[in-house]
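sorry to bug you again but im stuck and you know this stuff better than me. theres a chain ive been looking at and ive put its sequence and its fold in token form underneath. id like you to explain what the token line says about the fold, in plain words if possible. anything you notice is useful, everything is just below.
___
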Amino acid sequence: MIKKIIETRQALITISALIMLSATSLVSANDNVESVTIIGSKEDAKNLAGSGTVINNEDLEKAMDTDIAKILSAVPGMYMRTEEGYGLRPNISIRGTAIERSGKVAIMEDGVLVAPSPYTSSAAYYFPTTGRIHSVEVLKGPSAVSQGPQTIGGAINLISTPIPELNSGKFVQELGENGMSRTHAYYGGTSGKLGALIEVHDHSSDGFDSIANVGGNTGFDKSDLMIKARYESGNHSLTFKMVDLDETSNQSYVGLSQASFNANPRMRYGATAYDEMMNDGDQSSLTYIGDFDSFDVVFTSWSNDYHRDWFKVNDFNNDSEHGERDDINELISDANNGSVNAQAILDGELAVEIEYKHNNRYYTNEGYQFVISTDVGIHAIKLGYRDMEDSESRVQAYEYADQAADGSLSALYGYVGLGGSNNRLRQSAATSYYLEDTMDFGRLNLTVGYRSEDYDQRHRRWDEGAGPNLTAVRNTIVRDTFAENDHATSSFAATYDLNDNVMLVAGFHQGMTPMFGVEPEEADNTEIGLRFSEGTTNIEAFYFSSGYSNLAAECTLVSGASCDATESAVFSGGEADVSGLEFSGSWIIEGVGVTYPIALSYTSTDATFNNSSESDYFGLVAAGDDLPYIPSSSMSLVAGFISDSGLSGNLRLIDIGSSCSIAACGKFNKIDAHTILDANLKKSLNDSMDVYVIIENILDDENIISRAPSEGARSQKPRTMKVGFSYKF
């Protein structure tokens, strides 16, 4: 298998190099080269063989959102769970996929998978900085099969700032409550055949939570630097892109017991004062786009390296002294169930030793891919191929602090090396290809697709040993396992133009999600819908269903699961069914000197287990139980105005139905229905300068919006005001 991959890779690199070398002799110097997108424009989305949405730059500039959950609320069929209130590490589900760390969604930037390790560990706590993103594409149904490897729910493709044709730039400065500051600036242009762009994005805050007993910062500081350079000759271009990212977040994954939440929903336990996320990474890619006489080619080679150290509370070593369980998840559960000692430990009223864990990871993700598209008669054919390798290296260690009975904390001490279960290296080598043929029969278009995945995975563990710089000392291998996986999926979609305004859409596709070391998660997926478009009115309605043959999830501490100490635990929830209705509509009402745009997105979902089971991740499941974190309904309504005077504004209402954090939904696993109301007002002073004000959570609601770990209550961000200006030059 390995030999086959190497030989195939060498052959394809040779073919791709020949294509690129011959490009300049086959082109006209006057044609334009397009950017790398999957759907393209909003008009293209209306003809997609499956459901999909484009949120363009104009849409993003209306709300000036930096939280991807707020942006994606405009797309039906999306479910989000917040972590820290700023959208740094979103949990995203598409059409009922497991929501944990967005691990069941294909996340891309400019058509390249950007999850730090898509096959080995897709739920890796990384998401591109939304504040610098130019536009967003969301694919669902059969249209997502071409992307992969996660193809059950769909894919999200974030488009970075393009190199401008004319020398131009933009500067955005935003200030807000809790010491928030955001600076976004870019400048670029094109001269002859050369183009370039440099972009910086820096976002920081002191945080809105307080820390009991000891105080401290609960904010973050995140910065991105992006550089692009392009050489263009006629219908062909070569673009280099580099992104350097860095983040330090004084955030905690620990929620609150119900009693603590009732007393102060925006207070953190003193034990979490040392919790901190530190990550950094660099991404680079080289993309060739060529338009030949009879076919088009997009070829990309990329390399992504990412490191994160999620330093956080792990255990309270108190069982011998106070008779309580140690694990933070269990301690919150015990407090919820009436344990006075457990609540006192959390409140800092009993002396205990606290164990902190460096959840330290090094990720790699590199490879190349290409798409060749051509038209032959009634056939529009696309062939895509991807060859990549990724890895996750765990180098974890522990530190300790003493909590006194007055809630004070000692300095950290006792750096301790790791155990063999955590000192591990997991690697995947994957090849995939897809073939898609869209046949044009006039009003009727038929699209058939086929995708093949072939991936080898290796898992090694060593004996103990790590230095104080978190560099592993790997001597004796205690485990070395190897697994080969291959999987094929097919898709079928049809669109029919009922008339000039109405299109009928139907599709079926087999979806899969790779799971490390075990069989992939699989589901059969169906969608039926219609699109209506007339003037400024656009409406879509879809029915969707997914039948899982083996719902699967990987254990993570933040999920509240009791992870197996010696294995990378993947748990099965058995068979499950997800079905629902999606509706989205947009209208523009014309007035005298003013227009009133309105947009509505609504999803109704039924997501249930089909059989009973018991596992550390899903807990005790009975047939008919709801899937965790999938609400029965969600809605986003945006109503705005745009006046001829340059004044504009929007009011956005997000309404999310009730759900539960685990299948066996107890009293302290419930997440009640809640709403979020935001508003913004913008004034264009001239063609270059805009000033704006944003108010988030106008009603200052303190509802529980997630429970993580499974019983730890978390509140939404409080009412927050931001002011800023945008200057284009």
User: Anything to note?
Assistant: The domain at 2-728 is CATH 2.40.170.20 (Maltoporin; Chain A). Residues 315 and 327 are 5 Å apart (CA to CA). The chain has one domain: 2-728. Helices lie at 2-22, 42-45, 57-63, 68-72, 258-263, 319-322, 328-336, 340-347.
